[in-house]
Every structure is written in C-alpha cells, then in structure tokens.
Task: structure prediction
Amino acid sequence: MAEDGQLGETLPDGRSEQIRRVVEDCMFRRARGEAVSDQSVIDGHPDLMPALAEELRRLRIVEEAWEGLEPGSDRPTAGETWGKYVIEKPLGTGGQAMVFQAYDRFGAAGQVALKVALGPVASKELQAWARTEAEPLMKLQHPGIVRVVDAGSVGAVPYVATRLVEGLPLDAHVKSHSPSAGQILDWMTQLTDAVACAHERGVSHRDLKPRNVIVTVEGRPLIIDFGLCTLVGPYEPPQQIGRSGTPPFMAPEQARGDPDADHRVDIFALGGILKYLLVGTGPYGDRDSQEEYIEAATNGLVEPVDPGGGSRLHRRLGRIANCALAAEPEGRYRNAREMSRALARLRISRKLAVGVAAAIALAAAAVLAAVVLPGRKGDASSVTASLEIHFQRADQRGSYQVLTADLLPLRHGDRIQVHSTFSEPLATYVLAMSSTGQMKVLFPRRGEQAAEVQTVSVPPGRDQWLPLTRPGGTETILLLGRRRPLDDAAGLKERLLAYGPPPALDGVGLLVADEAGVRFIVNDDATYRIIGDRSVTVEKGLLAGLLDSVPREWAVVRAISFTHAEDANDRPDTRGADP
Result:
C-alpha cells in the first residue's frame, strides 16, 4: 500500500510525484543521520521550484515537532523496533503521517501498514482521540474498507495500523486500466455502501480522494485511512489549521473551516471521485497550485460533469455526481446511503436492460442451436466471491486477515473466523478438512439444509472463533457454492474426495485456490523458512479437481490451506524478538 500526501492531486504536469520522491528521499536521509540542507535539495532540483521549497518548509515543521520527544518516542526507522512493531521498510509520507510496512512482534496484529503521526500530540488530545475515534475505528468492519487492526500511541505520538493490502491507488490504476461506465458504476456502488456503513456507525472519513482508494489485484476498490484525517494531523502548516482534507476533493464548507461541517463532506468527495472516474478531473477541474484549489473550494467553484456527454449510462452517472457535488450541503444527497441507493437503482435498471437484450439473443441462439447443433449442457455463468480468513493467536485478543506465511508457525489453540460474500445468492457450504483425514462441515449446521445466501460468517458471531486443529500436516478451509443445494448433503465428504485427496504439504506457507488456480505462497523473510520438498505438485488432488468442475457443478470454489512444521507449536515464536 502506498501513501502520498496532498501533492499528488495539486500539480497537473506530473511534478507532484517528483517532489514527493525528492522530499521523501530528504526525510529518510536525514533520519539516517546525513546532513542534508534545504538549499542543497533546492539547488539539485531548480525545475521543481517554488513548490519544492514549500514542501521542504513543511518538512521542517514536522522535524522540529519531533525534537524534544520523550524517550522511546523516536521516529520509526527501518530495521528497528518502534513500540511493539518491527519496522520493515518505509512506504511513503504525506501531509499528515509517515507510513511504514511493519509487523507486530507479539503476533497479534501481524503484518501491517503502520501510519505514524508527523509529530507528538498533547496528552488531553491523545486521550480524547483514543476514546472517541480510535475505538470506533477498530470496530468498523466492511468488505470495502481496509480494516484498522490496531491504534494507539508510542509516547505522545499516535499511530494507526491497518492490514496490508496489495494493489494500486485508484488514480494510478485507471491510468493503465481505463474503466468502462459499467465498471465505474460497480466501483462507486461498493464505495458508497462502505461510506454509508461507516457513517451509520458514527465514523466519517473527511479525506476521501482517489489516492485513498486502493484497487486490489482482484479489481476490488477498498477505502484506506478511514478517520485518520482527524486522528493524526495535529501539525499542519499554519494556513491549514482548522481545515482537514485534500484541497482538490475538499467540500467548500470543509475548505472554509466551517465548524458545522458534517458527514456530507464525504458525500461531496464521493461525487468528486465519481467525476474523476468519468472525466479525469476532480470537483474543481485542473488548477495550477494548491492555493488555487483552496480558493476554488472556499468559493464553491465546482465544475459539474457535462450532462450531455457520453453514453446513456455515463450521463446518468454524471447526474448522480453533480447531485453529490452541490456547493451547499443542503443540495447534496442527505446521506451516503441515499447516494448508494441511487447507484444501486441504476445498477438494477441496467442489469434488467442487459438481461432483456440477452434473453432475446439467447432465445434466438437456442432456436438456431436446436436446428443445427446436438443437445449439450451449457456452462453456468461466472460468479464472483470473496473468502476472508481472520486469524487470532491463542493468547491474544487482536486479529488480522490471512495474507502471507507471516502468520505461521501455528500454535495449539490458534483460531479463525471465516467471512465470504457472493455476487449472487448461492447454496453455500463451508468445510474444514485436514490432510490427516479429518473433515467437518462448518456451514450449514448439522441437520440444516443449505439455503441460498449471499453472505456467510462462520462462526456467526463477531466475538466467536473457530479453533484450528493442532499443528501438523495441512488444514484447509474450503468454501463451495452451488446454484442448487445438494439433495444429500450427508454424502458431501464422499463427493469431494472423489476429486482426489486433500492437499498435504510440508513446511510453512499458504496454499490458495481460486480462479487463478492452485498457488503455494511462501514468505522467504519469515523466521521459519519452508522445509521439505518445495517442488511438490499442488495442482493435483481435491483443490484442482474442484476448480476443474467450475462452473459445471460448483459455481464457486475458494480455499485457503495452512501448512506448517510438524512440531511448530512447541517452538518459540521468535519473529521480531530482540536478539
């Protein structure tokens, strides 16, 4: 996950990225003890003036704020321990924080993106933040929001840790993958639903922009930095005091520092993101400097989407964007849920229109096939699905999502939660199976018929956990979906084993099965390296057999297998421990 500040959307000629890199290089060289003066940096990049000088001035404000911190509150440095985290490498810096890739040396939070404030915070402010902001953030869970797994402070410096996500910021993604109007509609439906969920739980973002939306490798948009604008931005330049957010996507009342600005600043920003996806510019068009953006935002100089351009779907999306971009809050959607419903209605009407056209085409094709082709069973249409495994150590309270082999080795008593979402209701089966021959149906429960559902959580309660078996061999969590439930669910085990044996691998790693095939993932930097035969053929057996059956029998197959050393539970977990 990368993090930039406010430069990324202020200078349209590409200099913003150059300035960001120069300032980051200066910051980290100074952190290593090098004597790097502002003038030497300016002399080396005269073409980036005067914006570079302003960013270096802001960096000086931050560095002065770090001076005089109490012991133990030093700036995080790669390769060293900061609080309970081991800092692995810097990911970037912004107007409010530095971001590092790190991992929790006690195993509770796992590998994270650690966002550290650019300076200390007064104790009263820190206590208020922990009470009113940090706790609600950690309870906020939605598939469209990158989850906050930890929040706290080291000395007087607050930090927020989120799970690490692989992907690109939205603006970087669309430069290489221009989205269709249909893709834009899907993305914005997901984003507005996520923001609505947060608002309904009392959490606002206040800095929504394309750089704060990550498009995952699967093409799914996720919002990052929820609530962090008010959490870790105490040391802004003087002209920014009383104002939060990024000027090119800032609502007018937000730019004016209006104390009554509420959740509707997020609605304005959502409209700005939608406009950006449609026409390539934000709410105020292209401006030459941050000051010009602030002036345009303060005066409400919104440039609406042209209502007459593009396809019919493009025009309807433009109308939704313009409603969200009203200069006065009263002219916008009343809440994010209302905007989400407007997009959902448009999505449904589009599907109906496409469905009617497809039905006519299919009818014509069926008539032709009946005349010239022998009868054959058609493949089912594809279904999208997510499988999330949240992991918790036996002796810890925090949890994090399974991503890499950093989670291992397992200990006896480690536990998980399974969460899945489908693009359409399916008869769903969730199983736990091990290479030692154990197989258990986790969903549906014993005696129940598999119902068609769109979301599944096992166990159903957020505070409930499913214990993993004692380490040794391989354990697989298997998610299956069918358009029709099995007549005989009791024979599910025999039906599955007909595809081949469950996976069995030696060592430490993750075995993942999805549309891309069966992949074995190993983190070479983990303390416990892979043991045994790494060249084992994982393409054969139950997982590959199930994937081969999609979409003939199963509409969805997802699986994550935990593989680990035989006696890993008896070994000390030394990742991140002091030498």
About this structure: The domain at 7-232+242-338 is CATH 1.10.510.10 (Transferase(Phosphotransferase); domain 1). The chain has two domains: 7-232+242-338, 385-570.
